[in-house]
């Protein structure tokens, strides 16, 4: 899953939000042990989310729509697409509550900026400046995210406009994949957190 889902599945707990968002920038046991146990827990939850997502049949189905145009990068684009549907999921967010949630996440991260990986903070500056978490809700925001991925993808020759066209063409089917998948992911994370709290 992408940034919004990881933040959302931290359930407003600052340490979980932090760990969930920085996890991709923390490599190896030595780097992990720099952080408090609660942030380490967020990093573990992030990795559990990624494993569950990669193995879920609905994610596999969604990847098939993108695979002809972007091959092994299809999973990266599906992550962003699922954030779009989460941002528009009226069972979880209104437009105003999404905006407030994004501001909450930025505040949590900004308060501990000096203690977080520099590479993450470099990315976070763009996340906050362009309000990625909120703007995932719009097609323009998703297209901007697609362009960013395409520019950073070393071995991808597909233009971002092609990826956007796939997204728009298969919008309803991709939304159906999200609706099948996300409640199961949330239940999985809630169960993991309950187990860890025992």
TrEMBL record:
Transmembrane segments: none
Keyword ATP-binding: no
A GO biological process held by the record: fatty acid biosynthetic process
GO MF term list: [acyl-carrier-protein] phosphodiesterase activity
InterPro entries cross-referenced by the UniProt entry: ACP_PD
One matching Pfam family: ACP_PD
Alphabetic keyword roster: Hydrolase, Lipid biosynthesis, Lipid metabolism
Protein name, entry field: DUF479 domain-containing protein
Source organism of this protein record: Chitinophaga solisilvae
């Amino acid at each position: 899953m992408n940034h919004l889902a990881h933040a959302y599945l931290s359930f407003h707990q600052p340490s979980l939000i932090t760990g969930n968002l920085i996890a991709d920038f923390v490599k190896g046991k030595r780097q992990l042990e720099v952080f408090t146990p609660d942030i380490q827990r967020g990093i573990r939850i992030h990795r559990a989310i990624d494993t569950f997502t990669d193995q879920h049949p609905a994610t596999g189905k969604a990847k098939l729509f993108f695979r002809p145009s972007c091959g092994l990068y299809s999973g990266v684009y599906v992550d962003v697409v699922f954030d779009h549907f989460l941002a528009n999921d009226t069972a979880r967010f209104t437009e105003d509550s999404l905006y407030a949630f994004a501001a909450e996440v930025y505040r949590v991260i900004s308060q501990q900026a000096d203690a977080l990986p520099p590479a993450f903070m470099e990315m976070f500056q763009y996340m906050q400046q362009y309000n990625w978490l909120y703007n995932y809700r719009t097609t323009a925001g998703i297209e901007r995210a697609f362009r960013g991925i395409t520019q950073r993808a070393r071995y991808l020759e597909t233009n971002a406009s092609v990826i956007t066209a796939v997204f728009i063409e298969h919008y309803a089917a991709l939304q159906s994949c999200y609706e099948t998948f996300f409640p199961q992911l949330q239940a999985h994370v809630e169960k993991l957190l309950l187990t860890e709290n025992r």
